[in-house]
Amino acid sequence: MQLHPRHFGRDLRDKLVAKLMKDVEGTCSGRHGFIVAITGIESVGEILEAVVTMVNKMGFFAEAGPVQIFVSNHLIPDDMEFQSGDIPNYTTSDGSVKIQKDSEVRLKIIGTRVDATEIAQTSLAQLLSRAVLLSYSLFTLILVILSTASRSDNQLCSLIPIRQQILIIRLLSQFCIGTIKDDFLGVISDPGATS
Amino acid sequence: MSGEEEENAAELKIPDEFLKAKCLMNCEVALILEHKYEQLQQMADDPMNQMSQVFEKSLQYVKRFSRYKNPDAVRQVREILSRYQLAEFELCVLGNLCPETVEEAIAMVPSIKTRGRAHDDEAIEKMLNDLSLIKKFE
């Protein structure tokens, strides 16, 4: 990454960070010697796999990394009934398929909720201190991973032009609505099945 | 037909910047994040302390849902899929979900069959076979 000398000075670091974000956000090309990439997650209409975290009579919650997904009981196949008890679950009438906590499910994202306040509250300095730079454009979360894990802000400006890896994780929002009521969707494994 | 179309990944309607951007499969992200995690481990006594929750959860997720663990296999998957003129997004969904049949693949990524693109069932089947071979020999 190159920065014009007129920007040199006290707030060099801020200028660099601002330029980095400007260059990286949206364009996402592999210029300037760093690797820019996007994980293909959380697009409306996308099918992905997730782990069930909570089951109740309204439906169930699942997680795909940092993203929460709610699947309402209207979007669970009609032949699956809610069973209360120690381990609440949704089960087919013949008992062959069961969704409970820790089940892995394949689901389709049908809607998202964007929480704007969360975006505004993201403090760059706070995130930089973890050597991970996160920046939000409206729907995008950018996670910069420095190849050298320095936590010092002061060192950051010297690190930025050096080879580094930038990983952009796309989050439409941290909360999505999903469905398993479609072909090839549903449970892929029961808890403990892989152990 | 309105100008502003809703986002829909099934029809490959994703914002321009993401359509052009490079996408990574879960298994690729797992390799990158694990590398980063190892670096953190070397730098500090308590790597967990330095990780953001987003990082931690992302790492757990991609590790759990990576079909291919071996870096060579991961490389091969991308190489094979990139022979089929797929959009980046389509490539990643296929690599992540590893559908077993043509029907399943089309249900997962409906856009591979639309807009007169050169994917007949035979080509899709060959692609899935190639993928399952990598898995077998991993």
Automatic annotation (TrEMBL), chain A:
<dbReference type="InterPro" id="IPR045113">
    <property type="entry name" value="Rpb7-like"/>
</dbReference>
<keyword id="KW-0240">DNA-directed RNA polymerase</keyword>
<dbReference type="GO" id="GO:0003697">
    <property type="term" value="F:single-stranded DNA binding"/>
</dbReference>
<dbReference type="GO" id="GO:0005665">
    <property type="term" value="C:RNA polymerase II, core complex"/>
</dbReference>
<dbReference type="InterPro" id="IPR012340">
    <property type="entry name" value="NA-bd_OB-fold"/>
</dbReference>
<dbReference type="InterPro" id="IPR003029">
    <property type="entry name" value="S1_domain"/>
</dbReference>
<dbReference type="GO" id="GO:0031369">
    <property type="term" value="F:translation initiation factor binding"/>
</dbReference>
<comment type="function">
    <text>DNA-dependent RNA polymerase which catalyzes the transcription of DNA into RNA using the four ribonucleoside triphosphates as substrates.</text>
</comment>
<dbReference type="GO" id="GO:0006367">
    <property type="term" value="P:transcription initiation at RNA polymerase II promoter"/>
</dbReference>
<keyword id="KW-0539">Nucleus</keyword>
<dbReference type="GO" id="GO:0060213">
    <property type="term" value="P:positive regulation of nuclear-transcribed mRNA poly(A) tail shortening"/>
</dbReference>
<dbReference type="GO" id="GO:0000932">
    <property type="term" value="C:P-body"/>
</dbReference>
<protein>
    <recommendedName>
        <fullName>DNA-directed RNA polymerase subunit</fullName>
    </recommendedName>
</protein>
<dbReference type="InterPro" id="IPR036898">
    <property type="entry name" value="RNA_pol_Rpb7-like_N_sf"/>
</dbReference>
<feature type="domain" description="S1 motif">
    <location>
        <begin position="44"/>
        <end position="119"/>
    </location>
</feature>
<dbReference type="GO" id="GO:0045948">
    <property type="term" value="P:positive regulation of translational initiation"/>
</dbReference>
<dbReference type="GO" id="GO:0003727">
    <property type="term" value="F:single-stranded RNA binding"/>
</dbReference>
<keyword id="KW-0804">Transcription</keyword>
<dbReference type="Pfam" id="PF00575">
    <property type="entry name" value="S1"/>
</dbReference>
TrEMBL record, chain B:
<dbReference type="GO" id="GO:0006352">
    <property type="term" value="P:DNA-templated transcription initiation"/>
</dbReference>
<keyword id="KW-0539">Nucleus</keyword>
<dbReference type="GO" id="GO:0000166">
    <property type="term" value="F:nucleotide binding"/>
</dbReference>
<keyword id="KW-0804">Transcription</keyword>
<dbReference type="Pfam" id="PF03874">
    <property type="entry name" value="RNA_pol_Rpb4"/>
</dbReference>
<dbReference type="InterPro" id="IPR005574">
    <property type="entry name" value="Rpb4/RPC9"/>
</dbReference>
<feature type="domain" description="RNA polymerase Rpb4/RPC9 core">
    <location>
        <begin position="16"/>
        <end position="138"/>
    </location>
</feature>
<dbReference type="GO" id="GO:0005634">
    <property type="term" value="C:nucleus"/>
</dbReference>
<dbReference type="InterPro" id="IPR038324">
    <property type="entry name" value="Rpb4/RPC9_sf"/>
</dbReference>
<dbReference type="InterPro" id="IPR010997">
    <property type="entry name" value="HRDC-like_sf"/>
</dbReference>
<dbReference type="InterPro" id="IPR045222">
    <property type="entry name" value="Rpb4-like"/>
</dbReference>
<dbReference type="InterPro" id="IPR006590">
    <property type="entry name" value="RNA_pol_Rpb4/RPC9_core"/>
</dbReference>
<protein>
    <submittedName>
        <fullName>DNA-directed RNA polymerase II subunit</fullName>
    </submittedName>
</protein>
<dbReference type="GO" id="GO:0000428">
    <property type="term" value="C:DNA-directed RNA polymerase complex"/>
</dbReference>
<keyword id="KW-0240">DNA-directed RNA polymerase</keyword>
<comment type="similarity">
    <text>Belongs to the eukaryotic RPB4 RNA polymerase subunit family.</text>
</comment>
